[in-house]
Amino acid sequence: MLVIRPEPSAWAVTCTACSHADAPAGIVGRSFPSTVPGCVHLDLERAGIVPSIDAAGGEAAQDWVGHADWRWHAVIPVDQAAASMDVAELVFESIDTVARVEVDGAQAGESRSQWIEGRFDVTAQVRAAMASGRAGIAVTVTVAAPVPFVRGEERRLGPRPVNGDWTPYPFIRKSACNFGWDWGPRVPTSGIPGDVRLECWSVARLDSIRPLVVHCDAARARVDVHVELACAPGSTARAGLHVRAELRMPPRESGEDPTAAGRAQSAARRGPAKLVVTVPVDSAGRAVATFEVERPDRWWPRGMGPQPLHALHVETADASGRPLPRDGGRSREVRRIGLRSCALDTEADEHGSRFRFVVNGRPVPVVGANWIPASPFPVRGRDDGAIDALLERTALANLNMLRVWGGGIYEHPRFYERCDEMGILVWQDFMFACATYPEDDPMPELVEREARQQVARLSAHPSVVLWCGGNEDVLAWQSWGFRERLAPGQSWGIGFWQGILPRVCAELDPSRPYWTDSPWSGSMERHANDPDHGDRHTWDLKFAACRDLVPRFTSEFGHQSPACVESLREALGDGWSVGSPEWKRRQRAWGGDAAQYAPFLAGEFHPAADDTEWVWQAQALQARAMEDHVAWLRSNPERNAGSLFWQLNDVWTGHSWSIIDGRGRAKPAYHAVQRAAAPRLVTVQPVGTPDGDGRRRLRVVLVNDAPSRWSAKVRLRAVDAAGRTVAEALRAVRVEPRSVDRSIDVVDALGAAGAGDGAACLVADVAVHEDQVRRDVPLPDRPPLRGWWWFGPDRGRPARSPGQVEVRVEPWMGGQLARVTARALVRDLWVEPVGNWAECGPNAISLLPGERALMAIRMRHGSAAGVRVHWS
Known about the structure:
Mean pLDDT is 93; it is low at 773-780. This protein is an alpha+beta fold. The protein has 19 helices and 48 strands. It is 20% helix and 32% strand. Helix 9 (443-458) packs parallel to helix 12. It starts with a strand and ends with a strand. The strands form 14 sheets. Strands 3-2-5-10-7-8 form a 6-stranded antiparallel beta sheet. Among the domains are: 2-199, Jelly Rolls; 203-342, Immunoglobulins (Immunoglobulin-like), CATH 2.60.40; 679-792, Immunoglobulin-like (Sandwich), CATH 2.60.40; 798-872, Immunoglobulins (Immunoglobulin-like), CATH 2.60.40.
């Protein structure tokens, strides 16, 4: 196959119309250089027409862009080799969104979905260009303004309820959050965010490859590689076409799993370094190549074993198995696949019904996050390293699953490739969120084509373990008044989530489970958020109230906070302030600051001295809420099989539920989640059978998700407000692999002090052995695993005073090191570098008087100008 791509800079974009009153004068008819893949917002920013979306006033300054029509133009070069092929196809990986494609002035096709590849036959145009001596074909893509389009469809089909006051996004197959969300800006984009290429071929090309692992255990794996070919019109060679598939084994030292039995099995494995299968193509252009792998090296989730990846080579061949000649239209693709089984256990039990992920026959203790797009613009994040950086942070935070949320985008291949390599499981939503969706034409056809392309595209990835219909659509219909607001007989999308999508998944990928929506209880006869069945979104319980409930799986929960102070300063300038107009514009959550922060801050802290302390207090609240909720759910594995908090990342510098802000800085909540998600966790929780007064007794909980037994000596102390130990006990416990120990009753061990009599907090320490040390934390100390329980709010203790914490910053190993010494009882100490982009870690820690901590300062360039320190 001959592939020709225009240079990214070969494109120009022109505004052809704009209905917005605030559009810049003279914008209609004006052309700008354009980069493809890309979007018009980025082109306009480069041209100086609009500011960065993250700058003060940036969102308002580009509001007109989504009301404008745009036309992209480029010339794609062609040559005699291209013209000699049987077929020439112009391929758009993605067009955003409603568009007309013309080649040499004639219409070649249309686009109605951001999620469907555009493929247009331009064989005649390529041959005509060569015959007339032209050097290429002229390609024009005209994209309709998205805001007027959805409003027009709303008028045509009748309004449907959506969450919030955002533009009626359900009327277009495009990223929902593009039109605004409670954590991000309103930036309805237009553009060509995917690859553009001219594919020229003869005889046949590979259209789709779906390698499905239909069976996998320690003894044997079976992989069915489903291949579909597109054949040239009138080709006489179709009858003799074959598919040759080659599966190459990973290095044998990759191992099966870290246990002794796994190592022995890997050492015993024998067999060829690769398997080759050649099969004929049927009259419909389809073939299935089956591999049987003895004693396979299985792919495991992060923390449960290695992630060996097998190279799968697929190519078209003749009847003897020889690849077709390159100049005859040879098609060849290479994929990397992992051999593993995956299932969703929803069997009934004494608590209702489970919601438990099972990989290779083993239940996976899930601790993960929801993933939103890495940028407001669909092209960013993949080429600037943002995806890689966020996934590395995911792994360092001890998380093993990400849910690709249905209001965002189907992610770039790089996202799934890195998840495969790192063992990060992917819960994949289809792109529906928080709305009722019309099932009128052309939506059913668009949704089915979208599902078919995305399932075929992603089915090779072992990290993908669930297809899910969408986000909070059934919940909204049941509980947000959406059902009552629909007109009689009006469709709302259930035909997609319980009809088209499960049918496509069952047909194209029966190797993975499908789930109707999130949350979903398994039946329309039950409420979608039933805590005894399926997955639950827990937004109705805040802070300590999270312990009132143990759902079967918690797929959303969280607490809001602002971005880090240095990020606010970079985005909004040195004059930023809490409560300023720009601050308020970036607060999109219901009730604003008055609902999201005020009652919790007043109930917990002494009044903040300044804006920077206010931001820290708001961030500390989020950190505490996240750590408590994750630790609570992990302490109750009999009912809860996992959790995914909302949300990992952010798209701009504002208020959101992210633990990493829009400029890539970790908030205190990141460090809190990192502790709570550690394979071995020490926490203090009110668990077990309630007493006669209905209260549960405090216990030290040791969670061991590691593959080896944990022999732990627990030092439990009750500490008063001055940091003095008022009671102490030492207990030895053994925690079996993948289990939880709750045998240490705090009151039994410490007496009345264990119930808060004269104590400000409880501290449970377990010494860290050398084999438990995090090798990726470059610090010379070995702090214990520690769990805290605080009696009463911070405002009940004396306010902080100078001299309680000493921080010295010094050069260290080519970077900087912060040496911290506590002179008092210190809670949630936050050391924030000032100046150049930098982070400190481990951070957001609590210390007893006299304790020391070392924090590495990680910088992108230069050195930090100093540090800002907060604690309570």
